[in-house]
Amino acid sequence: MINPKKIEEVAKQISDNLPNGVKQMAGEFEEKSKQIIQNQLMKLDVVSREEFEVQQHVLLRTREKLEALQAQVDELAAKLTK
């Protein structure tokens, strides 16, 4: 769901931009930043790209079936009106 590599990259960028005096604590800061970012991302109501694509495919197939059923209903309605 959440790409840990991206979280590590963001945490590393944050720690790399710290002033030199603070860099001594960079390892601990990086780990804490990673934990905070992960916790905040877990609170978001999001789905993975893979899950989104699966649902998109399901929706497309459902739409195709609905259109086929609608065509059948229209055909039957036309037959009944004759």
UniProtKB/TrEMBL annotation:
Establish whether keyword Cytoplasm is in the entry. Answer: yes
Q: State the protein's purpose.
A: Required for efficient ubiquinone (coenzyme Q) biosynthesis. UbiK is probably an accessory factor of Ubi enzymes and facilitates ubiquinone biosynthesis by acting as an assembly factor, a targeting factor, or both.
Q: In which pathway does it act?
A: Cofactor biosynthesis; ubiquinone biosynthesis
Keywords, alphabetical: Cytoplasm, Ubiquinone biosynthesis
TM ranges: none
Q: Which Pfam families match?
A: BMFP (PF04380)
Protein name per Swiss-Prot or TrEMBL: Ubiquinone biosynthesis accessory factor UbiK
Its localization reads: Cytoplasm
State which gene encodes it: ubiK
Family listed: Belongs to the UbiK family.
**Which InterPro entries does the UniProt record give?**
UbiK
* The keyword Nucleotide-binding belongs to this UniProt entry's keyword annotation: no
What's the source species for this entry?
Answer: Shewanella intestini
